[in-house]
Design brief:
Elements lengths: L13 E5 L4 H12 L3 E6 L2 H15 L3 E5 L7 H11 L6 E4 L14 H29 L2 E6 L12 H20 L5 E6 L8 H4 L14 H13 L4 E2 L3 H12 L2 H17 L1
Parallel strand pairs: 1-2, 1-4, 2-3, 4-5, 5-6, 6-7
Bound molecules: NADP nicotinamide-adenine-dinucleotide phosphate (NAP).
């Protein structure tokens, strides 16, 4: 819900970041605030969002707003939009970053968790773009950064729905980028390789090889916002992830799937 009165737009740009309670989202919010944007922070953990909001207000003097919503609830994106409207804010930069993985053999996985994953990683991304992109187009300016993943370039056994959700975000973002090319609205998909955040433990994948090859979240967030500024369609931060993405063009998709399965194996044996 919106915390009316906590924010007063300073006349500058407003950025809305989902999944801003930690990890890449918090780094995106820090960078956007450092750049002078007022920020609207969205996630489930209200306390963590409030701590982030006061950090950003103190460090950068920007106005902040907390909108605590569970994006796996149908209608949550609409409630985020209503909260923003109620505050009289216009979103100039939308960072669709909230997301999570689910590391389990598909046949043993929890159907409710799979449904929540598709709602947060896919449906909420589309719904928030649909909610905020029209205003940007009308104003002839704005930016949408959708956080996909290197996982979107391949199939991922044991995290099949997660990898597929990121393929969706990537393809959807590429389409939107082309559609809005002449509108003044920048649209970019950020496709990081493994990043050191709470993501891996939340996905029950903390012991996998991938989890141990991670980059820092600040570097990933910086690369994403730089790419958005330049209106790049896709951004894959880091040399090794870039090389791996390049390899996906050369190696048959079925082989890539076996390689991805191997990277998840240590967890399965443990
Ligand atoms: N870490 C990686 O290796 C990696 C690699 C490539 C792409 N990514 C992508 O990067 C994005 C950010 O992940 P991260 O690595 O920063 O992970 P993280 O530290 O676990 O952060 C995930 C964020 O999403 C929020 N979130 C999760 N479920 C939510 C829900 N149902 N409703 C609202 N917010 C929710 C979390 O907040 P609450 O828990 O407070 O709700 C948190 O702020 C994700 O889309 C992820 O798929 C991560």
């Amino acid at each position: 819900m919106a915390d009316a009165g906590a924010v007063k737009a300073n006349g500058g740009r407003v950025a809305l970041v989902t999944g801003a309670s930690g990890g890449i989202g918090l780094e995106l919010a820090r960078l956007l605030a450092a750049d002078g944007c007022d920020v609207v922070l969205v996630a489930r953990s209200e306390e963590r969002l409030r701590a982030a909001a006061s950090e950003l207000k103190g460090a950068y003097g920007v106005a902040t707003q907390v909108v605590a919503q569970n994006l796996s609830d149908p209608g949550a994106a609409g409630r985020v939009k209503a909260a923003v409207d109620e505050l009289g804010l216009k979103v100039d930069v939308l960072a669709n970053n909230a997301g999570f993985g689910c590391d389990a053999p598909f046949v043993e996985s929890d159907p409710a968790r799979q449904r929540a994953l598709m709602q947060v990683n896919v449906a909420a991304v589309v719904e928030l773009c649909r909610a905020f992109a029209p205003g940007m187009v009308e104003r002839g300016a704005g930016g949408i950064l959708n956080v996909a993943s290197m996982a979107g370039f391949m199939a991922g056994p044991f995290m099949s729905t997660y990898y597929a959700s990121k393929a969706f975000v990537q393809t959807f973002t590429q389409g939107l980028h082309a559609e809005l090319r002449l509108s003044g609205v920048h649209v970019t998909a950020l496709c990081p390789g493994p990043v050191r955040t709470e993501f891996w433990n939340a996905a029950d994948a903390g012991q996998t090889l991938l989890a141990h090859a991670a980059m820092g979240a600040p570097r990933v967030a910086r690369a994403g916002l730089r790419a958005l500024r330049w209106n790049k369609t896709l951004c894959v931060p880091g040399i090794v992830p870039k090389a791996l993405v390049f390899a996906t063009r050369l190696v048959p998709r079925s082989w890539m799937a076996y390689a991805a399965a191997a990277l998840q194996l240590p967890k399965r044996k443990g």
